[in-house]
Amino acid sequence: MASPPSLLSKTFSVLVSGFVVLNCFAVDKFGSHAQVITPLLPVDEVQILQNISNKLNISNWAPINQTSCNSTQWKHTIDSKTQSIVTCNCTFENDSVCHVTNISVKGFNLNGVLPDELGDLPHLLEIDLTRNYINGTIPPRLAQLPNLKILSLIVNRLTGPIPPEIGNITTLEELVLDDNLLGGPLPPDLGKLTSLRRLVLSSNNFTGTIPETLGNLKNLTEFMIDGSELSGKIPEFIGNWRNIVKLDLQGTSMEGPIPSNISLLTSLKSLRISDLNGSSSPFPNLQAMKSLENLILRNCLITASIPDYIANMTSLNFLFLNNNLLTGEVPKWALNNRQKVDLSYNNFTWSALEGSALGSCQQPKQDKNFVSSHLSNNNTDDWCFTKGLPCTQNLEYRSLFINCGGGSAPFNGDTYERDSNDGGRVSFSFLPGKWGYSSTGTYMENTSVQTSIAKNDFNLGVTGVYETARLAPQSLKYYALCLPKGKYKVQLHFAEIMYSNDQTFSSLGRRIFDISIQGITLWKNFNIMERAGGVGIGIIEVFDNIIVNDGTLEIHLYWAGKGTTFVPYRGVHGPLISAITVTPKFKNGSGLSVGAVIGIVAASCVLAALFLLLLRSKGYLGGKELVDKGGTEGISISLV
């Protein structure tokens, strides 16, 4: 009697639409199908996913059922930044049960709230809801996820603090929350996340100091808290982060000096620190950082000279040390190498070498900025490298009208001059003896965004000088040159034209910068959109009675690290301005005020009238008959 055909179990795994689909079936030795087994989502997980979809307002997940892992409905990709992908693992219980492991919905402008139910999917490895319009708070229930590795919520409207419970997700490797509205102190519980590699908290409203417990995060490769209100000293425990590659402390309220044990961070590729409070300090010891690519230490109260070992950092691409107290001579290597260098606004001393190596004001070196970096200079051809940008010609009386980022244009009865040169990363441009600008910084996170001209990409209803604008990643200074001594009225025209006017992530940008005139900060944390009441609305900020004593009027727009950096895409931040108007408060070239001029004219008129009355009383103007007695000669009056 023939034995019955034996069954050979076989499993085929197919990767469809970004998730694993498993069709299990049995075949006999002759190849005929005996049974088909389709792995299924548990019923309770189906309901959880439905609740998540409803709360986030996800439109492309429906219908959700037990066979959703085996269909293409959970893969929807427009491009690398806009995708909705749900991934399943269907190997549970002999390949018969599926569980959701990854939820990634990026760039779909989801406008719901962050659901608590995400914490009820115990097999989740990743939650990525980048670039949406989600509000609410971070649910403490996420701490129930025993395997979560990635939590990324970049660019949303999330508020409230980071729940301390997040510190219980000990498997977490990436916590990325930049460009939200989160606030409050950082919970010390984050120090329990010893598997954490990336902690990115940029562009939020966190306060207080960095908890000492974060010194336990010895696996960190990336730590970014730029654009927050965190304060206190830069902690010594950063020396524990021996694996760190990127450290960004720009735009906080922290104090220096930079700890000496920063020298232990030999894996660093990007070091960015700015706007430190406190006392001055010497240049930090970075000699062991052989892999350093980006070095930004701006406005950090650094004194002394630039160390020679910087010349041996062959990987260095960007060296921005502007707005410090650096002294000595500019190193020869900084003048001639391929790096993008910004040493503007320091206290260097002049040397014969630099006279030719720096270039000239007419033809500055490409990707180098040495504007106002030297204490003094006798060479009139290189006036722009000297502190204060001294005038080298006669002072002239004029008004100034600049259409920043645009062509020549009539506006409000005046003609605004063309300013449409796209200067690039670091640049200085000027019209001799009239006006100029200095632009510094680079959009390091997005090498394709290097323009210094902003355009109305969202078709906002702006007109005139507001249709375009000039912007800079870090610092933008305009100079009115060779002005007579006196008081001036400065009007700065702004309109936010780089964010959208709708309920999408492109509308969530916050452009924040400081406004200084003549070295005095007149507005901290200026926000165009907040001030104007929305995007695409032109406003004029008026600063009256600005005093010019030495011929140069300086207008400084400065990004201190605040605001968003990922809206509408990575690398949009920094000051932006539409137009500049400068008009004198006096009516002649003497620099006298209007009141003084009126007083002088009035007094002159009174004296002239008295003199004429005196002449008339003597009969010289017909008041008396003149009689020549004894041959007296007539009197001649000459007015020269």
Defining key terms:
mainly beta, kinase, 6 helices, 6-stranded mixed sheet, ATP binding, 39 strands, 14-stranded mixed sheet, Jelly Rolls, globular, 640 residues
Walk me through the structure:
Among the domains are: 1-86, no CATH class; 400-584, Galactose-binding lectin (Jelly Rolls, Sandwich), CATH 2.60.120. Helices cover 9% and strands 30% of the residues. The chain has six helices and 39 strands. The strands form eight sheets. The chain has a 14-stranded mixed sheet with strand order 4-5-6-7-8-10-12-14-16-18-20-22-23-24. Strand 1 and strand 2 (19-28) form a beta hairpin. It starts with 6 loop residues before the first strand and ends in a 23-residue tail after the last helix. The relative contact order is 0.06. Residues 1-32, 589-603 and 620-640 have low confidence and may be disordered. Residues 400-580 form the Malectin domain.
Concise summary:
This protein is mostly beta strands. Helices cover 9% and strands 30% of the residues.
Query: How much helix, percentage-wise, in residues?
Result: under 10%
Q: For the largest beta sheet, what order do the strands appear in spatially?
A: 4-5-6-7-8-10-12-14-16-18-20-22-23-24
Task: Identify the CATH class of the domain at 400-584.
Answer: Mainly Beta
Mean of pLDDT: 85
Tell me, briefly, the overall form.
globular
CATH H-level name of the domain at 400-584... which superfamily?
A: Galactose-binding lectin
How many individual β-strands?
A: 39
Low-confidence stretches: 1-32, 589-603, 620-640
GO molecular function: ATP binding; protein serine/threonine kinase activity
Catalytic activity: L-seryl-[protein] + ATP = O-phospho-L-seryl-[protein] + ADP + H(+); L-threonyl-[protein] + ATP = O-phospho-L-threonyl-[protein] + ADP + H(+)
Membrane topology: Single-pass type I membrane protein
Keywords: ATP-binding, Glycoprotein, Kinase, Membrane, Nucleotide-binding, Phosphoprotein, Receptor, Serine/threonine-protein kinase, Signal, Transferase, Transmembrane, Transmembrane helix
